[in-house]
């Protein structure tokens, strides 16, 4: 039975829940809100370091609801953040989880990036990685596995 009455909305809610379930599984969490928070902060941190065209290309492969999360609050006319260090990237995730001291920000980052890589084409993942500084690129797993054939 339809939750929203619109097939596209039902599908994107279902797909988003699959992504959140995968993040919860990766992290050993049972809290869907925490998984949403992780997805949101990693998407925003990544987005703000990509050139506008790169961010748009990645967003085009995201499910509708996740694409909305990705674009939330984005101002493409702002100069992109050009931090070069992995520690600077991870610090943003750490700050988002400052009320959860036992959450490992780097582990959260890697888990969310693994889920993204699983659902986005390998070519797009490689393209995103190539726009990032080497240290930040290392947060992505070397081999990506995707559902695209």
What secondary-structure arrangement, pairings included, does this model have?
Layout: H1 7-27, H2 32-47, H3 52-60, H4 64-71, H5 86-96, H6 105-119, H7 122-131, H8 134-137
Question: How would you describe this structure to a colleague?
Answer:
It contains 8 helices and no strands. It has one domain: Orthogonal Bundle (Globin-like). It has 149 residues and is mostly helical. α2 runs antiparallel to α5 (86-96).
Task: Give a quick summary of the entry.
It contains eight helices and no strands. It has 149 residues and is an all-alpha fold.
- The shape is globular
Q: What are the secondary-structure elements, in order, as H or E?
A: HHHHHHHH
**Tally of distinct domains:** 1
CATH C-level class is Mainly Alpha
The secondary-structure class comes to mainly alpha
Query: What is the CATH architecture descriptor?
Result: Orthogonal Bundle
Specify the helix fraction band. Answer: 55-70%
The main β sheet shows up as:
none
CATH homologous superfamily title: Uncharacterized conserved protein DUF2267
